[in-house]
Design goal:
The chain is elongated, with a radius of gyration of 34 Å. Helices cover 65% and strands 0% of the residues. It has 15 helices and no strands. This is DNA replication protein DnaD.
Length: 304
C-alpha cells in the first residue's frame, strides 16, 4: 500500500529543523512535549503533564530541560530585569533524580552503566552530574554510556574526565549514539597510528604531545597518507628522528600533489637517470681515448 500526504485544510504549526535533528535521540514524551509547546506556547510543567497525560511532573520538567539543552527553549527568571542574562539551570537534586528514575528507566541505566564502568558506587554529586548530562544538557544516553566506557578503558574513572571528553565530542559534531560509536572507531584508529609513528621515532607513545598527535591525525585524515608514506618520510629524513621534520616533509609532498611512495621516488630516479645520460655523453668513447692518447704520445727520433 502506498501513502501520501493529504491536503491540509486545518491549522498548522511550524516545526523547527532542530526538532527533526533530535528525533533519533529524543524519547517519545520529549517529542510530544516539543509539539505541544510549539502549538500552544505553554511551558508550565503542571499544565503539560495534565494535558498530555504524562506519568508525572518530572517527565514534563525532564522534557523541557532536554529541549532547553538542545537549544529549542531557554530559561529565564520571570522577574528578571530586561537584558539580564538567564541563570544556568539548577542541577537536579538526589531526591529529584530518585523520583525521575522511577518514571524514566534511562536514568537508572545511566547510573548502572557508570557504576559498572568506574567499578564503584557513584556519590550523590556524581549522580547529579551524570543525570544532568542527559536531562539538562541534552546528551543522548547512548553517547554518555559509550563515553563512560571509553574513559574507564583508558583508566580515567571520574565524572570530570567524562564531562571534558563529552564536550570535546560535541565540538566535533558527535551527538547520537551512532555518531559516538563511529567516533570511538576513529579514536581507536588514531591510537594505532600514533603507536606506529612513535615506534618509528623510537619513543614511548606517551611522549607524543597534543600537537604531535594532531599532526599525525592530519597526515592520515587530511593528507590521506598511509603507513608506507609516513615510513618513506622517515627514510628520507635519514638519521633525523624528529616528528616535526617528518611533518615538514609530508606537508611538502602534499602541497606538490605526491600521493604515493612511487610519486615520491619517481623524480629522484628520473634525476639520477638524466645525470647518467649526461655523464655518458660527456665521457669519451674507447676509440676517442686511444686516438687522444696517441696524439699526446711524443714521437721517437729515428737513429742517425
Amino acid at each position: 500500500m502506498i501513502y501520501r500526504l493529504k491536503e491540509l485544510k486545518g491549522d498548522t504549526i511550524a516545526v523547527p529543523q532542530l526538532v527533526f535533528s533530535k528525533l533519533g535521540i529524543a524519547e517519545e514524551y520529549n517529542v510530544r512535549v516539543a509539539l505541544y509547546v510549539l502549538a500552544t506556547g505553554i511551558t508550565d510543567p503542571e499544565k503539560i503533564c495534565a494535558d498530555l497525560k504524562l506519568r508525572s511532573r518530572i517527565s514534563a520538567e525532564s522534557a523541557l530541560s532536554f529541549w532547553a539543552g538542545a537549544g529549542l527553549l531557554e530559561k529565564y527568571e520571570e522577574n528578571a530585569a530586561p537584558g539580564e542574562e538567564p541563570s544556568a539551570p539548577a542541577p537536579m537534586t538526589w531526591a529529584e533524580i530518585a523520583a525521575a528514575s522511577r518514571t524514566d528507566p534511562m536514568i537508572s541505566s545511566l547510573i548502572d552503566c557508570a557504576q559498572a564502568g568506574f567499578g564503584r558506587a557513584l556519590t550523590h554529586g556524581e549522580m547529579e552530574k551524570l543525570v544532568n548530562l542527559y536531562v539538562q544538557e541534552g546528551y543522548a544516553p547512548e553517547t554518555v554510556m559509550l563515553c563512560v566506557a571509553y574513559m574507564a578503558g583508558r583508566g580515567k574513572r571520574t565524572m570530570a574526565s567524562v564531562l571534558h571528553e563529552l564536550k570535546v565530542w560535541r565540538a566535533e559534531g558527535v551527538e547520537t549514539g551512532e555518531q559516538a560509536d563511529a567516533h570511538l572507531q576513529l579514536l581507536a584508529l588514531r591510537q594505532s597510528r600514533e603507536q606506529y609513528v612513535s615506534g618509528l621515532l623510537g619513543i614511548p607513545e606517551t611522549e607524543l604531545t597534543l600537537g604531535g598527535r594532531k599532526a599525525i591525525a592530519r597526515w592520515y585524515e587530511v593528507y590521506g597518507y598511509d603507513d608506507a608514506m609516513v615510513q618513506e618520510a622517515a627514510v628520507q629524513a635519514g638519521p633525523k628522528r624528529d616528528l616535526w621534520y617528518w611533518n615538514s616533509i609530508l606537508k611538502t609532498w602534499n602541497a606538490k600533489g605526491l600521493r604515493t611512495v612511487h610519486d615520491v621516488r619517481a623524480p629522484v630516479a628520473a634525476a639520477g637517470a638524466s645525470r647518467n645520460i649526461r655523464v655518458d655523453r660527456e665521457a669519451p668513447s674507447g676509440n676517442d681515448f686511444l686516438k687522444n692518447a696517441a696524439r699526446r704520445r711524443p714521437l721517437k727520433k729515428k737513429p742517425e
